[in-house]
Write a structure and sequence with these properties.
With 190 residues, the protein is an alpha+beta fold. Helices cover 24% and strands 22% of the residues. The chain has 4 helices and 9 strands, in the order ααβββααββββββ.
Length: 190
């Protein structure tokens, strides 16, 4: 005589086994493989958004300032934009300090536009803040405007020796980029 414990039940009616089943293992393995495959497929797409080597090379430049005499300005290029590096004379520094900044359209002191301990070096983009022209005043003999700095002949913007707008339609001072002196005569721009 068979007891209830030994009665065979059909497979569909058997209670589910507890613990990890083969099907659970297959589901976990399939999801893991799909996840790793997705990451491998997306990685090149994300990586292609990084800047190229030529763009990285233009991100910062090192400039040797040792050959620039007081009163001289050089033009260079950074991130495909012209850049002025001006070695201010003592007279130009005193003249820039003497300006009452409260009367300026874009009030900034010379100290705010130069690096601490390197007030004789004014580094600014050579782009007029009115319409993006390149002001004159860097080369010898060029018109430096009424304030001895830079002059944009296109619409008549006059900048002083600290690159601050003093007259004309330009709304703001010449932009000073981020830079850092790595030695007394070398600056890294960008």
């Amino acid at each position: 005589m068979a007891t209830e414990d030994h009665v065979a039940q059909p497979a569909s009616e058997q209670p589910e086994e507890e613990g990890v089943r083969r099907r659970d293992f297959l589901n976990i393995a399939a999801v893991s493989v799909a996840g790793v495959g997705g990451v491998i497929a997306i990685l090149p797409l994300v990586n292609q958004m990084n800047p190229s080597a030529d763009v990285l090379a233009l991100a910062s430049i090192d400039v040797d300032l040792s050959a620039i005499e007081p009163g001289q300005t050089i033009k260079t290029s950074w991130r495909k934009q012209p850049l002025f590096i001006r070695h201010l004379t003592e007279a130009e520094i005193e003249e820039a300090r003497a300006v009452d900044v409260s009367e300026l359209r874009d009030p900034q002191t010379l100290a705010e536009r130069t690096a601490e301990g390197h007030e004789q070096w004014l580094i600014s983009l050579a782009v007029c803040t009115h319409l993006g022209c390149i002001p004159l005043g860097a080369a010898a003999g060029e018109n430096k405007g009424e304030f001895g700095g830079y002059f944009c002949p296109c619409h008549g913007s006059h900048y002083d020796t600290a690159g601050r707008i003093r007259k004309g339609p330009a709304p703001t001072n010449l932009v000073v980029p981020e830079y850092e002196f790595t030695s007394d005569t070398t600056v890294t721009i960008g």
